[in-house]
Amino acid sequence: MRERLLTLALAFGALAVFATLFVHGGELGGRRTALPTTVERGGNGLAGALGWLREERIPALSLRERFDTLAQRPGLAPSGNLLVVSLPVSTPFSGAELKALDAWLREGNTLLVLAAIADKPDWARSGVFWTDLQDLTGLSYEAVRLRNAGAAQPKREDLVALMAAAVRPLASPERTTLIPNGAHPYLEGVAQAVAWSDYPWRVFPWQVWAVKVPRDGFVLSLARQRETGEGVLWTRPNGAGTVIVSGFASLFSNRALGLADNARLLANLVAASLSARGAVLFDDEHQGLGAAYDPAKFYRDARLYETLGVLFLMWLVWVLGGTRLRLPAQRASAPREAQLVRVTGAYLARVLKPAAAARRLFEHLSRRLANRRSAPAPAEAFWERLEHEPRLARADLERLRGWYERAYAGERVPLKRLHNLIVHIERQLAQ
């Protein structure tokens, strides 16, 4: 009983360690990347923005479907909505949804694109999103210094060194600041807004980007970056709708929303974009959260806990009934005669000196010649008997006497040859 209780205690200890690693494995394994989704409560997530809007009774929801479903989405007004998209994305845009998005914007909706141009949170360290940005907004960007005539072209080794530095995280997050260019409803009451970078946001010294205005419209630059003086907030009309582009992807993240005037800027954008029946939509689909991904529904399912209960009971039965801390004692079978002889011979071969073994062989031979008396015959009688035996060869006797003298002198004697010679002599005497 005591052994079973100890087994049960150790099993529950192992289960507790497994549960700890399962729940906190990501934190123990090192730095975890927080994606810009509404379920992410890490520094770069958008759960804070979603929760804040809902507390203010502003309709806000997570969009986990592609953009071509916006027009048919039940309960969503046809116009007066705000869609928030973070770039770069993990799920590419399709041509059908880009076409549907353009039509949806022209109906009187607003698109807010948070693009990692002048900042680089950890989820945006790849930095490849220029085509997506142009497809979504109709705006394109180019490097100003490389466009200018006479700009010095970088060397290959400089490029390699800069690229290597770009993939190394900063020792501590770097803060960059947005300041308004002038008065605008979006920037009312906003003196500055703060963004954070986990990786170097400017990889190359010549990385100064300028927006390229489309031919069929115009773009208004609303704010600039304090550190460089370059634009970081733009807006342009699209039919009856509006496209807003922020060069800071982390403006409304969990760690930045409460700093400076970030929340005020978000409130202004929402107030200017939403109609009475409008809603704020956060694009989670293109950050990897599809409609099939619903963790709350998964954990509410009773079948999950039933399955876990059955597995726990099976594991408990196996631990208590099929495991043992102490291995059963194994009874060794009795050794055979040949094995005993072999083991004894091996032992004697290791501890018995050849001279002592040879003397013992001579004593046994002397007893047999003396008609098996308890004591061996004297040496004189032993050799007298052998020398007067006509059936023995003189060469055998001389060899036997030589080994006899060496044995009693403590010298090494070839035991195998001595044994064979004694057997041969006894056979000759028995004839």
Q: What gyration radius follows from the Cα positions, in whole Å?
A: 47 Å
H and E string:
HHEEHEHEHHEEEEEEHEHHHHHHH
Low-confidence stretches: 146-151, 159-165
Strand order of the largest sheet: 1-11-2-3-10-9-8-5-6
Strand content: 5-15%
- Give the biggest beta sheet: 9 strands, mixed
C-alpha end-to-end distance: 73 Å
CATH class wording of the largest domain: Alpha Beta
Class by helix and strand content?
alpha/beta
Number of domains: 2
Number of strands: 11
Can you count the helices?
Answer: 14
CATH fold descriptor of the largest domain: Rossmann fold
Which overall shape is indicated by the principal axes computed on the Cα atoms? rod-shaped
**Which range best describes the helical content: under 10%, 10-25%, 25-40%, 40-55%, 55-70% or over 70%?**
40-55%
Q: What is the CATH-assigned architecture of the largest domain?
A: 3-Layer(aba) Sandwich
The chain-level mean pLDDT equals 82
